[in-house]
RNA sequence: GCAUUCGUAGCUCAAUUGGAUAGAGCACCUGACUACGGAUCAGGAGGUUUGGGGUUCGAAUCCCUACGAGUGCACCA
């Protein structure tokens, strides 16, 4: 079925028939645009064993393929490169195979399950640009893994407790009363809950810094001032009260968090992200101490004189790491050990993936090493999907310096831009206002998601606001536009009584048509690679290449005014298939595509 | 200081994992049948892949080195 496989096997055959030897693996690469052909076989590696020139080998294999196969129609040899052209009949076979597959793009089930943990926000501030990259990545990877045949469980662990939450709470207690003595609420202020709480987090920081400065002015060293500032002491006291279950503190904590969750829910809804299970750190932070006990018993951990517990990971190239404080309380690692067990107990996933920024690379290296030492059955299925930070042209984002790009603001900005562009072009006069709003949202989110997902996750990236609202070239809206354009052609075709068919008949093909079939045939493989590498960027690139190739095809051949009905039929069918595949690919990125725009 | 990731056109990113003359988009020039949607297409210009060594038929990719940048090195999360 797969042309590439056919060609590879044919080459194996040729080599054994011609030279009486075999090659472990035949590697094919796409032929460069400047040369004729589709696949290229590099003959250099054979020169040593065969003691023949690369050109000679190329000629011999090429001739053999042309004479003995139906796939290869002709060939040319340039230096050590054998360029192979594929016969139209083979292309049509491929096309018909794809058309016969109802779930094209859905790979067979793997019989395995994966948990993807992402988003995991703090409840002391609203989401920003960095969170968006995380959310889009986690969501897209989940979709891609599903397409790869895995059962996927999406989870988030909400960081809803701890000293930073107490900071917002304390500031709220101190500063939230308005002139009439009423505390501010989302309703009274008209602010989204997460933004409201974020405001108090910033207020805390300001007031705290002012106290430090005052103490320093009185002659206290800065380090001491940071620890002894009254606000800091109050917040620590508040955390103690929270842990003891003090009713007043817990009530306030509940109230503020609820407001934040309402705000988050709104944002998640807008970006189309959801979870199968949400964990709360207020429940899980106590976990992990039994794991420490277990590790001690197994002799994997050791206790120091001050009774703190450690593990020595120098054999793995890591350091010694603390897993329990000397006062017996947990650290971050303790919790994660316990939580990982919990997640496994809940779902028994074959694999667990964490979408977390690359500043935690070391933490996860240690976590995985410990779990391997403990002999956890799932230890080899753990993966940290580490992604780079998002920089701004002005430099790094810093919450406290107010240089963060707020997620809600950004989404609104993209929406506004989409609306402006659409109005300028004036193509949707027949839309009612609800339809128009839906379109603006679809385009705005498409631009934003594509912009953040087209870059390799591992790399840090630059977010240039001007480029992000660009709707031309390698952008989400360009791909969405191509889809809308095809749908328009298909509507018109239908008016002419033409429908896409389930199969196409033999006919001479245009190079742009061959190119389209070739790209389409690559889709399953690209999904597999994107799954293996956890790289939504592969899918983005695929969608872009497919859209570009279609526009090229569109510019070079005529679909509806083509005189030959068989060619028209092929082109209508191919168009429908491309539109469907673009939609599927974009869906893997969590991006919707419109019928009109 | 130690560990780790990275450095590709003016800018943002690719490069099938060691293959041909390193490709796209943006920006900048030049064109496109009265057209099935111009949010498009075709073409031009733009590169010593940070510098210097090495490995081999062949290097942006692997090794060494210098320079530059990010991140991590808490009994924080």
TrEMBL record:
<dbReference type="Pfam" id="PF00750">
    <property type="entry name" value="tRNA-synt_1d"/>
</dbReference>
<keyword id="KW-0067">ATP-binding</keyword>
<dbReference type="GO" id="GO:0006420">
    <property type="term" value="P:arginyl-tRNA aminoacylation"/>
</dbReference>
<dbReference type="InterPro" id="IPR005148">
    <property type="entry name" value="Arg-tRNA-synth_N"/>
</dbReference>
<feature type="domain" description="Arginyl tRNA synthetase N-terminal">
    <location>
        <begin position="5"/>
        <end position="86"/>
    </location>
</feature>
<dbReference type="InterPro" id="IPR035684">
    <property type="entry name" value="ArgRS_core"/>
</dbReference>
<feature type="short sequence motif" description="'HIGH' region">
    <location>
        <begin position="121"/>
        <end position="131"/>
    </location>
</feature>
<dbReference type="GO" id="GO:0005737">
    <property type="term" value="C:cytoplasm"/>
</dbReference>
<dbReference type="InterPro" id="IPR036695">
    <property type="entry name" value="Arg-tRNA-synth_N_sf"/>
</dbReference>
<comment type="similarity">
    <text>Belongs to the class-I aminoacyl-tRNA synthetase family.</text>
</comment>
<feature type="domain" description="DALR anticodon binding">
    <location>
        <begin position="479"/>
        <end position="597"/>
    </location>
</feature>
<dbReference type="InterPro" id="IPR001278">
    <property type="entry name" value="Arg-tRNA-ligase"/>
</dbReference>
<dbReference type="InterPro" id="IPR001412">
    <property type="entry name" value="aa-tRNA-synth_I_CS"/>
</dbReference>
<dbReference type="GO" id="GO:0004814">
    <property type="term" value="F:arginine-tRNA ligase activity"/>
</dbReference>
<keyword id="KW-0436">Ligase</keyword>
<keyword id="KW-0030">Aminoacyl-tRNA synthetase</keyword>
<dbReference type="Pfam" id="PF03485">
    <property type="entry name" value="Arg_tRNA_synt_N"/>
</dbReference>
<dbReference type="Pfam" id="PF05746">
    <property type="entry name" value="DALR_1"/>
</dbReference>
<dbReference type="InterPro" id="IPR008909">
    <property type="entry name" value="DALR_anticod-bd"/>
</dbReference>
<comment type="subunit">
    <text>Monomer.</text>
</comment>
<dbReference type="InterPro" id="IPR014729">
    <property type="entry name" value="Rossmann-like_a/b/a_fold"/>
</dbReference>
<dbReference type="GO" id="GO:0005524">
    <property type="term" value="F:ATP binding"/>
</dbReference>
<keyword id="KW-0963">Cytoplasm</keyword>
<keyword id="KW-0648">Protein biosynthesis</keyword>
<dbReference type="InterPro" id="IPR009080">
    <property type="entry name" value="tRNAsynth_Ia_anticodon-bd"/>
</dbReference>
<protein>
    <recommendedName>
        <fullName>Arginine--tRNA ligase</fullName>
        <ecNumber>6.1.1.19</ecNumber>
    </recommendedName>
</protein>
<keyword id="KW-0547">Nucleotide-binding</keyword>
